[in-house]
Design brief:
Blueprint (H helix, E strand, L loop, with lengths): L1 H16 L2 H22 L19 H15 L5 H16 L8 H5 L15 H18 L15 E4 L4 E4 L19
Antiparallel strand pairs: 1-2
Helix pairs in contact: 3-4, 3-6, 4-6
């Protein structure tokens, strides 16, 4: 006890002689040392769980609106929200791939000859909601979360439609056509 008291007195004397900015740094370091020492004494099951890095948001409201307009233009007449969501996933697959040009959603969507994007398309609530949901799921995936509700695998970059359905492929010509075998959060 006597040693601890002498250490505290010496610490106060050192602090008093330090400039204010150095004193603040020293106090923070000392407080951190005490916390770390206390945690080292805890049993492994009592130690605080390591914190995951901060959750990062990779999209903006403008991205939501752009994808909503694209879904309206490419799949507005299609009755399946899963098929509509796949349009947005196609954009995100291209954005995440090093094989396609574009550093942003806007650059991918507006690349010449790629998508039927209409900047005047209406912002209807159902398409805004769907675009926001897909972007949230993609964002969760980019932050390392599992089972986010992806409805189109990462390797599918192309699609074509007949007015009733869109058909997603993993090659520009031919390739495998997506069979919608992933569980969809959109269909009941």
């Amino acid at each position: 006890m006597k040693t601890v008291l002498l250490g505290l007195i010496a610490g106060v004397m050192v602090l008093a002689a330090m400039p204010a900015c150095a004193r603040t740094c020293y106090e923070k370091a000392a407080a951190t040392s005490v916390i770390l020492a206390d945690q080292e004494r805890l049993a492994p099951e009592d130690k605080p769980a390591p914190q995951k890095e901060d959750y990062v948001t990779y999209y903006t409201q403008a991205d939501v609106e752009m994808l909503a307009r694209l879904i309206w233009a490419e799949a507005g007449g299609i009755g399946s929200d899963t098929e509509r969501a796949c349009v947005a996933w196609t954009v995100l697959n291209r954005l995440d791939s090093p094989d396609f040009a574009g550093e942003t959603i806007a650059e991918v969507v507006t690349a010449p000859g790629q998508f039927y994007y209409l900047d005047w398309a209406p912002l209807e609530e159902e398409f805004l909601t769907l675009a926001g949901d897909v972007l949230k799921r993609w964002n969760d995936e980019k932050n390392g979360l599992d089972d986010t509700g992806r409805v189109l695998p990462a390797g599918y970059f192309w699609f074509a439609g007949d007015g009733r359905h869109n058909y997603f492929r993993d090659a520009f010509h031919g390739g495998d056509r997506w069979d919608y075998s992933l569980d969809s959060p959109y269909e009941t």
